[in-house]
Amino acid sequence: MSDHLQLTSTLEHGEGVDNSFSLTERETQKHSMAAKPNRQQSRLSPNEQMIIEIVRRNCGVKRSAITGFTNLTQPSVHRIVDGLLEQNFLTLGETVIEGRGKPSKGLELNPAAAYSVGLSVNTDSASLCICNFRCDVVHYEVLPVHPGQRASTLIVLKERTLAAMRVLGIPRSSLVGLGCAMSGYFVPPHGYFVTPEPLQDWSLVNIESELESLFETPVWTENNATTGAVGESVVGAGLQYPTFGYLSFNYGFGAGVIIDGKPIFGSYGNAGEISRVYTLDEVAHRPALGELIKRLRANGVDVSNMEDLRQRFDPAWPGVDRWVEEVTPFLNRAIDAMWAVFDPAAIVFGGELPRELGEMLIAAPSSKRFWRTGISAVEPVKILSRVSGDPAAIGAALIPLKDLFFS
Fold first, then answer.
1. What are 179-211's pLDDT values in tens digits?
2. H or E element: which one contains 339?
3. The sheet that has 219-223: what strands, in order across it?
4. What is the sign, positive or negative, of the torsion defined by CA atoms of 291, 294, 300, 305?
5. Helix, strand, coil: what percent of the chain each, to 5?
6. I need a labelling partner for 322 at 20 to 30 A (CA). Which of 28, 129, 206, 336 fits?
7. What is the largest CA-CA distance in the chain?
8. SS3 of 377, please?
9. Is 0.70 surpassed by the pTM of this model?
10. DSSP-assigned letters across all residues of 100-130
């Protein structure tokens, strides 16, 4: 029996597992043979998506004010808004009084219109996130399992997701998709992950098919740096900076690219694999937190894993200052590469980066530059992530909503 069928069989017949999402073996086989799907198609028109995005960014906006954000006529806007209200994507909020005009109710997203699930698989932990249509995180938890074993992690994911949905009163029909974020990069021909060594059990397997079989819902799989960037674009720094670079400090070191509010994936899904700017001899000097943990242990600091580093980080630990000094030129190379290629307004420091360490890295000196004219270009600002919680899990949950409903 293949790993995929064995995993599905375990989930279908294991004790204490709710089987409401399970598929038959024949259906599972059909899913496992299918090619990796393209982006899911939205059931909404581009204009409907545009108006939903306007309301999302301007909660409480009056219907009459939406026209100014678009190139549509007012009758067209009113017709589209009426349709979205009828489909329960929008709802009427508080009454808005402006000037001498007739008071009217502002428009808001209906939080119960749709829900999505996000799974983040890191080298030493896995977390679950559920977001509503308003992009609020309604549930978040670190799964009580080490992610090294794929089957047991997915079993717990299903159990905990179903339990959370029951507690929150979320009907199965409202679940529109699941996003999975993982460390690693994609390789052809199937677009499977190649993961870091601690996640070897997740490498070169059809994760999308396994998750689709478990949840019977569309699945998106992305690098955790990309999902972190998406989360930042929807609920974080992207609300102020539509074009930004996202640096993901995890066990490794990656990046995501957001241009005009949209993530860039690249030909093979690997846009933002920023560690490729380093030679083999330089890899150990890039700002990867796995390398920092090795240095701390060598200096007698007992740091068990990434979560421990994030929770207990102390800038006074021996070796921290020296590591920051060592990685700064390599961090600057990544920033300069992003600045040169797509001219971001901001560079966001995110991933599993402890906040105090992020502040130290941001304060480190930038590259010295020479401008022939003596007048420099505008540099991107360096800021810490504005997303609370696990940005990769939150971003993974938001990707289905963004793809299906938001422009």
1. 999 988 999 998 999 998 889 999 999 999 999
2. helix 320-342
3. 137-142, 126-132, 115-121, 175-182, 219-223
4. positive
5. 45, 20, 35
6. 336
7. 72
8. coil
9. yes
10. TSPPEEEEEE-GGG-EEEEEEE-SS-EEEEE
The three-state (H, E, C) secondary structure of 1-60, written as one string: CCHHHHHHHHHHHCCCCCCCCCCCHHHHHHHHHCCCCCCCCCCCCHHHHHHHHHHHHCCC
Amino acid at 303: V
Which of 126, 110, 142, 115 lies closest to 215, judged by CA?
115
**Alpha-carbon gap, residue 137 to 231, rounded angstroms:** 11
Instruction: From 310, 406, 375, 395, select the one nearest 140 (Cα to Cα).
Output: 395
Q: Tokens 């995005």 map to which residue?
A: 53
- Give the pair of three-digit tokens for residue 153: 């992690």
Helices 25-33 + 207-215 axis angle, to 10 = 150
Which pLDDT does position 373 carry in this prediction? 80
Q: For tokens 């963004």, name the residue.
A: 402
Q: Is the previous residue joined to 189 through a cis bond, with omega within 30 degrees of 0?
A: yes
- What is the arithmetic mean of pLDDT over 309-313? 94
Q: Which domains does the chain have, with CATH numbers?
A: 3-25+114-229+392-405 (3.30.420.40), 46-111 (1.10.10.10), 237-386 (3.30.420.40)
Chain segment 208-264, per-residue pLDDT in tens: 999 999 999 999 999 999 999 999 999 999 999 999 999 999 989 999 999 999 999
